[in-house]
Amino acid sequence: MTKAIRIAATGGPEVMEYLDVDLPTPGPGEARIRQMACGLNYIDVYYRSGLYPQPLPGGLGLEGAGVVEAVGPGVTHIHVGERVAYAGGPPGAYASARVLPAHVLVKLPRSIEFDTAAAMMLQGMTVQYLFRRTYRLQGGETILFHAAAGGVGLIACQWARALGVTMIGTVSSDEKAELAKAHGCAHVINYRKENFVERVRELTDGQGVPVVYDSVGKETFFDSLDCLSPLGMMVSYGNASGPVPAFELKELSSRGSLFITRPTLFHYTAKRDELELMAAELFGMVESGKIKIRIRQRYELDNAQQAHRDLEARLTTGSSILIP
Fold this sequence. Notes:
Elements (H helix, E strand, L loop, with lengths): L1 E6 L8 E6 L8 E11 L1 H8 L8 E2 L3 E9 L11 E5 L9 E5 L3 E3 L6 H21 L7 E4 L5 H13 L2 E6 L2 H9 L4 E4 L5 H8 L5 E6 L6 H5 L2 E9 L13 H4 L5 E3 L3 H4 L3 H16 L7 E6 L3 H9 L6 E5 L1
Helix pairs in contact: 2-3, 2-9
């Protein structure tokens, strides 16, 4: 038996239950890990609310770190007793221990603590694919990044600075603005006080930016398009304010033949060799000190409901974890 958060129906935070759960023996291609920390991410809200469907009853959480306790037949890349971390499905990371597909697990360097790993795997590899693969940033570019003081945002601030990229970030409060600046964001816009489209145009001498990274969705989508230079790329990778509304393709042509993509981490990590390369680059950035992961919220696993309330109310900044 292990303790885990389960949902029998979709809905608000109240649908999450803290239960005793039977843990099966790992089958072919699976591993069992004892989790030392679990990541908390906005994608968990999407699964809980039903925006992202999954079979029910089910679990929540896509990120964690711990120690391998057992492996099933055919698993050779990890071994019992090794430290591992992961960011991948199926949901179920909100647990003291779990059985999951072994192909999502990567070995965790001794220099990186379990708490740090659980706080950075999904968010850090998201920044890796956004900056190095979806639109490969070059030094000297200027970009717009929404939610700059969130978990992904604070890693993005530091990674952009390390690449020599000027990052314009948006936030919802002066406190968050100071936090983003402290992590390397060159220009921060409090969108509750300023029109971010006008400010981006001012900062770029009317040219706009070549790429916008938008995890907010409904509230910012069309204004984000207006921040792009001709032939620019809109990277819509989340919907914290709700799904992007339907739109006509002419919205892209009328603004300068824009490109748009809706990527997800799990397509980028589907191949084992690519997962390992992405994780290695993230680990290297953290070990070098170019990126520092600061855990700003910690919750006991049985307090997951409050964690989700805080997350949805935009009360959290930086990375958050659950402690089993």
